[in-house]
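STRUCTURE:
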């Protein structure tokens, strides 16, 4: 059952119960008041003849006729016979007994033998009694009508309350239904960028904010788990793909050196080749572990890094290590990023290391850092041979230039590592031809501090 339906039923029940309770009290009070008035009328007639039995009958008749009371007056004789002196609009049709008379001498009562009447008797001397009877039919009829009116009023009040409540609660109910549908869709695996708008009362707004926080946290955890699973699959695929070649080489040379007829020269070459493959495997495993670590990094970093200082330090080390190169710095001071310092340093080392590995030792290098619009842009350029194709996304183990062999080109993970490092820092990397004639690596980062 929907929340709106439950609230509607609850409002109807509460309003009906309250209205019926108030109505019952009103009907009960009105009925008691009517009975009190009826008793007073009977008592007025009886009390007029008290203390004067000889004149009691005439006094009672006189009071009744003078006030035009709607009462029945019967005289009950000692032998049980009855004479009706005055008949009311609703006359007493049953015959009262001496027991009824004697039981009503002191007060107005209802007796089983005379249903629908209130009676009281008066001793009028000589063993005779005057019985004054008042019909309660009109009171019963009025009570029934009041009960029907109260029931109708309770129903109308309940309907009015529901209408008013729905008018005032419409926004809350609509928002609640939207949140319930949103939560159901999320539970079924659908993803949304935004939660339904937080219209309605404060409680509904707080519920919307709590739901938004819960969904955002859930989606972040799902994304992290998905990234972890993807990272593991990619790591296994990368490792099995790239490690197979050096392992095959090592296996082949190990079989060669186990041959007793191998010459010393062949043995030395085999050992050297195996050593190079082992060194290469160590670098490859280190790069693969770094890639796996990058993929598992949280999407945001709380660390603030002085980007300009890190770039200046990396360029200075590169200039010291390669004094034959002309290195131009165009670095804007004071730039900061929310990122990890070690990731920035590794990205700079990879970019400058590629230049040192794949270009002649005398080509110029230019490093530029500054703001371009609302992003921070880092450009690392060289005057080397460049790439055959620019603008393509870096892929693992894919060499842009076939001339860069495994012997000189490393594992083929350098460009991919730089792309993943920039992505981990809320940025992106692209390749283009440099104005110096070689390769230009461009890193763009959204400013978060």
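SEQUENCE:
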């Amino acid at each position: 059952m929907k929340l709106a339906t439950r609230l509607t039923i609850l409002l109807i029940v509460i309003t009906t119960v309250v209205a019926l309770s108030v109505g019952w009290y009103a009907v009960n009070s009105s009925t008691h008041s009517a009975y009190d008035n009826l008793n007073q009328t009977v008592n007025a007639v009886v009390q007029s003849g008290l203390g004067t039995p000889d004149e009691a009958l005439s006094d009672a008749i006189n009071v009744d006729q003078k006030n035009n009371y709607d009462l029945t007056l019967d005289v009950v004789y000692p032998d049980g016979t009855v004479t009706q002196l005055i008949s009311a609009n609703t006359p007493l049709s049953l015959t009262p007994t001496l027991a009824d008379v004697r039981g009503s001498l002191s007060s107005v009562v209802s007796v089983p033998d005379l249903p629908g009447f209130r009676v009281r008797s008066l001793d009028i001397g000589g063993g005779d009694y005057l019985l004054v009877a008042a019909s309660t039919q009109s009171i019963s009829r009025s009570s029934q009508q009041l009960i029907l009116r109260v029931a109708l009023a309770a129903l109308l009040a309940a309907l009015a309350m529901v209408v008013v409540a729905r008018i005032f609660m419409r926004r809350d109910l609509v928002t609640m239904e939207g949140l319930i549908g949103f939560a159901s869709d999320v539970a079924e695996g659908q993803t949304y960028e935004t939660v339904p708008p937080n219209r309605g009362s404060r409680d509904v707004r707080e519920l919307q904010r709590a739901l938004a926080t819960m969904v955002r946290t859930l989606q972040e955890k799902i994304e992290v788990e998905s990234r972890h699973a993807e990272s593991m699959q990619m790591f296994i695929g990368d490792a099995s793909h790239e490690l197979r070649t050096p392992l095959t080489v090592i296996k082949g040379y190990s079989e060669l050196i186990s041959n007793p007829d191998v010459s010393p020269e062949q043995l030395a070459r085999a050992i050297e080749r195996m050593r190079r493959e082992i060194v290469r495997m160590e670098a490859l495993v280190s790069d693969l572990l770094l890639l796996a670590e990058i993929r598992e990094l949280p999407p945001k970093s709380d660390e603030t890094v002085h980007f300009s200082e890190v770039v200046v330090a990396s360029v200075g080390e590169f200039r010291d290590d390669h004094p034959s190169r002309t290195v131009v710095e165009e670095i804007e001071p004071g730039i900061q990023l929310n990122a990890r310092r070690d990731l920035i340093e590794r990205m700079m080392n990879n970019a400058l290391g590629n230049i040192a590995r794949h270009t002649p030792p005398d080509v110029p290098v230019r490093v530029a850092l500054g703001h371009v619009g609302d992003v921070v842009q880092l450009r690392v350029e060289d005057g080397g041979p460049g790439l055959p194709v620019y603008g393509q996304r870096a892929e693992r183990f894919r060499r842009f230039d076939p001339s860069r062999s495994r012997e000189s080109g490393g594992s083929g993970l350098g460009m991919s590592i730089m792309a993943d490092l920039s992505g981990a820092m809320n940025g992106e990397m692209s390749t283009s031809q440099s104005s110096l004639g070689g390769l230009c690596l461009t890193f763009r980062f959204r400013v978060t501090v």
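REMARK: Confidence is low (pLDDT under 50) at residues 396-409.
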